[in-house]
Design a protein that fits this description.
It is built from 15 helices and 17 strands. Strands 1, 2, 3, 4, 5, 14, 15, 16 and 17 form a 9-stranded mixed beta sheet that branches. Bound molecules: zinc ion. The site of zinc ion has 5 residues, from loops.
């Protein structure tokens, strides 16, 4: 039997950006069977949720994360990058167990669900444990094991992982290959990964052109930009999720022509690490799809995609030196349709036959009043804390602000205890 949600506004994010005020969506199983004005749907439904003050829209898709790093939130912030990575992050990572990953992913899932994210593309390790938590959380995820040095064994294990988990949890879990970056994976290894991806019809998740230091290193080692290097290794023959892309330049564009996939911008991480601002007009002008992500909470501190939408808009306006350079709808597009298109996913919009993945945001709070422009309110005024309902794959995962799939309180308590233990170990205690 079907479930109907009715709200003050329904933003479909379809090609015509149709908005129904009021509007309704109806889903049966995992799929939307109706999107339109509430009174035009006359069939009987098993459950009806009516939120007149709500803005219903596609769930946000976090296109780049390292979910379990939520356990390291607040670790040595504001340190120089390499000091932060080598002296703080790596020693803790070296001690993370599968149980820690399971816990860290659930902590991240709690934060993401509360702030309206329905799915995330993740790169990390102990990926079996990560998938178990994704399954439990009710979220959608594209999981890849980070490959950070040449290893036949790890590539073989990665492929085995991909085969094992692909399509599990009612199709909520998808898998990708995850060569970390061109400065950790040399060209021959990238080539091998690319060939495996093509042979097994898998996508690739990789960090490219994130920092000035990476550009310098690649120029020095290979006389190429990271994009040229990835192209030459055959990476772009597979669907590729390029995380960051801050330093993509005009010379790179021919290599990105016809790319299946696209770039996931992580503006908060790029700002906080002092890396720079994505050349959005250059990429869009060349027809490259741009989606949005948070990166890990160890560098970004927050997995709130509403914050990322703001940061993306602010930084593009600042880069171009004019407010009209980037619109609120462009940010909303990147966080929904953009990320979905990079992943080759049917979600990110509300239409007949699409996945029942949507959220309801409270649109009548002090900070979203008056309601003159719903899209501007969502991007510039709202925050993830305004999300009241999250539906993923036809299941209500957040109901009136309460997570229905797991015991959030227990996860938070355990995460606090475990994070303190991990830090004690770091200091030799
Ligand atoms: Zn990253």
């Amino acid at each position: 039997m079907a479930t109907k949600f009715e709200a003050g506004h329904v933003l479909t994010m379809d090609d015509s950006l149709t908005v129904y005020s009021p509007g309704a969506v109806v889903f049966e199983g995992q799929t939307l069977v109706y999107v339109g004005p509430p009174d035009r749907y006359r069939e009987s439904v098993a459950q009806e949720v009516v939120i007149p003050e709500g803005v219903l829209m596609p769930g946000l898709i976090n296109g780049h994360s390292h979910a379990a790093m939520s356990l390291m939130r607040g670790l040595a912030d504001d340190s120089p990058f390499f000091e932060w990575l080598t002296q703080h992050v790596w020693p803790v990572e070296a001690r993370l167990t599968a149980d820690d990953i399971r816990l860290g992913v659930l902590l991240a899932a709690a934060e993401m669900i509360h702030s309206g994210t329905v799915g995330f593309a993740d790169m990390y390790f102990e990926v079996d444990a990560a998938c178990e938590s994704v399954d439990k959380s009710g979220m959608r995820a594209w999981i890849s094991r980070g490959l950070d040095k040449p290893s036949e064994e790890k590539l073989a294990q990665s492929l085995e992982f991909c085969r094992t988990w692909r399509g599990r949890a009612d199709g909520r879990i998808q898998t990708m290959l995850g060569p970390h970056a061109p400065y950790t994976c040399p060209p021959e290894f990238l080539q091998e990964i690319a060939e495996s991806a093509v042979a097994h019809a898998l996508g690739i998740h990789i960090h490219l052109s994130e920092s000035a230091e990476e550009m310098r290193q690649m120029q020095e080692r290979y006389q190429k930009t990271p994009i040229q290097l990835a192209y030459d290794a055959g990476i772009f023959k597979a669907r590729t999720l390029i995380a960051h892309g801050v330093y993509i330049q005009e010379d790179d564009l021919p290599y990105l022509e016809g790319l299946a996939g696209g770039v996931i911008s992580c503006p908060v991480s790029n700002a906080k690490l002092g890396n720079g601002i994505l050349p959005y007009p250059l990429l869009r002008g060349a027809g490259v799809t741009v989606g949005l992500g948070t990166d890990g909470a160890a560098s970004t501190n927050s997995l709130d995609m509403f914050l990322e939408m703001k940061a993306l808009a602010w930084m593009q306006k600042m880069r171009e030196g004019k407010p009209e350079a980037f619109r609120a709808i462009d940010a909303l597009w990147a966080a929904t349709r953009g990320s979905a298109a990079v992943l080759g996913h049917q979600g990110g919009m509300l239409a007949l036959g699409r996945p029942a993945d949507f959220i309801v945001v409270d649109g009548k709070r002090a900070h979203t009043t008056p309601e003159l422009d719903v899209v501007a309110n969502l991007v510039y005024a709202a925050s993830g804390a305004d999300v009241r309902y999250v539906v993923i794959n036809g299941h209500i995962v957040l109901q009136e602000g309460i997570i229905t799939t797991f015991d959030e309180k227990a996860v938070l308590q355990e995460a606090q205890t475990r994070a303190e233990h991990l830090l004690e170990g770091r200091d030799g205690a």
